[in-house]
Amino acid sequence: MKEFLQILRRFVPPYKGYLILNIVFNILAAILTLFSFALIIPILQMLFLGDGVEYHFMPWDSGSLKDVVINNFYYSAYYCKITYGASATLAMLAGALVVMTAFKTGTTYLSSHFLIPIRAGVVRDIRNYVYDKIVSLPIGFFTTERKGDVMARMSGDVAEIENSIMSSLDMMFKNPIMIVVCLVMMLTISWQLTLFVFVLLPIAGYIMGKVGKRLKRTSLEGQQQWGALMATIEETLGGLRIIKAFNAEHKIRGRFHDENQRFFRTSTRISRRQALAHPMSEFLGTATIAIVLWFGGTLILSGHNIIDAPTFIYYMVIFYNIINPAKDLSKAAYQIQKGLASMVRVDKILSADNPIKDPDEPKSLSTDKGGIRYDHVRFRYGEDWVVDDVTLDIPFGSTVALVGQSGSGKSTLADLLPRFYDVEQGSITIGGVDIRDVRVKDLRAIMGNVNQEAILFNDTFFNNITFGVEGATQEQVEEAARIANAHDFIMASEDGYETNIGDRGCKLSGGQRQRISIARAILKNPPVLILDEATSALDTESERLVQEALDRLMRNRTTLVIAHRLSTICNADMICVMHEGRIVERGTHDELIALGGYYKRLVDMQKF
Q1: Span 264-280, pLDDT tens digits
Q2: Is the pTM here over 0.85, yes or no?
Q3: How high is the pLDDT of residue 449?
Q4: N or C: which end of the chain has fewer CB within 10 A?
Q5: Three-state helix/strand/coil letters over 489-550
Q6: How far is CA 521 from the centre of its chain?
Q7: 515: exposed, middle or buried (C-beta count within 10 Å: 0-12, 13-18, 19+)?
Q8: Pairing of strands 385-394, 574-579
């Protein structure tokens, strides 16, 4: 319950107005329920006690308010019976019962009416918080988390929170109020009997709580298995071409079936324990009623004047009215325990620390004051240094290329510049300003990226090119596309710039996708450009077109190029050869060829 209250404190405050209205109408509904039940007693007396009972009006100051109200209520019914007859009085009492029930059900509806925005709003807010957190977290977070599991937390776990916790809010707010109001009335009628009830109820609550804790543990295990299942589906869809190419359908099918079977066993245990909530609460409630009925009936039959028979009937009706809310409350407790397991998994994302932080007093950044300097930079993902004591100067407006074998640290060195990761030792400065002293948004605003894999979105040509650029005009977009050698094939498509390119640009060839990403970088017009093997996956004709577009893009910009095809960086102002995280050679193409070291061997292997 403590975790549930923490969730309410975190997410409910924006809806406190709705919450107050819900509580007010729940209190009204509980009070009206008691008064509607009170009408049952005179009805029963007329039906079964006949004319043997007489009532007389009592002055309002002649005794305790409780006794006077009860007596005068019965006197009014008795007077109507004498004046209009028993049948007419029963009709009036029945009509009053209908009216009171109408008020009660109306207030019950209004309580739910004002709770619905809380339920829907909290779930919406959680989704927004999770998505915003995912977008804000550094790339390093997702190197240890499986994408499918993250998707499961945002979809399945948030849906479980909605189905379990949020759907229980009505029961959690309404039922305790009903129970408290009824208990107050029961104390008013007979504190001795109610004290006996107070001894019985905690015992039933303790039994239900023990089972609920076990349900939460099992539910957390089930949600983790659901995340693994989603991760397998995501990997299958992403690698379907390889799975079929290697005839590995049976292997991936077996893996999925095993994980699905584990999830089946866990979810079966969860559902069985959840199904136990209603029968157990009904059994405990009926046993409690039977004990109270025996205890109260024994007192009346033995002649003790603690309570009379009609009042005892009313007392039992009120007590029975506690049982259903108590059962619903226990059911809600089960559901909440299941939802809390999902909240634990969602909270792992919400509470994740983002090491890439803005400085308290950010400095301004100007790229025309100087170039980029890596000063004794070191970085590692695990224990081994991926970038080891690298010092590199990139003058303003120059092109510097990074080459070397796979795993030598080229891409990591480039990823440190826009602060996808932060350096562990050393520093990176632009114009003499440490990039950690600049707001991340301002830093990345001066940079453009063209990667080996063109990352596009399921949208139109126009929206993909203008991605991240506000207020771009059609003329500016077309000009960027022309520079990127993309305008012709865009205009040849069905709807021109408004043509949808499909999921990840699946309707386009590799060269076309790359030219769209180049057009996107051209439109942004960044002073600093990072090219990460932008032509390595292209055929010769596409490479020529893309390289022409890149040459236009690189003019008058500070450019950091990562290349495997060394023919694309022959004209770079400086080429740095990386090996095991260090720069082992640097110079122009001709200087490095003359040196006869790592670079010449790379060139000779590509020629061969």
Answers
A1: 888 888 777 767 766 77
A2: no
A3: 82
A4: C
A5: HHHCCCCHHHCECCHHHCCCCHHHHHHHHHHHHHHHCCCEEEEECCCCCCCHHHHHHHHHHH
A6: 32
A7: buried
A8: unpaired
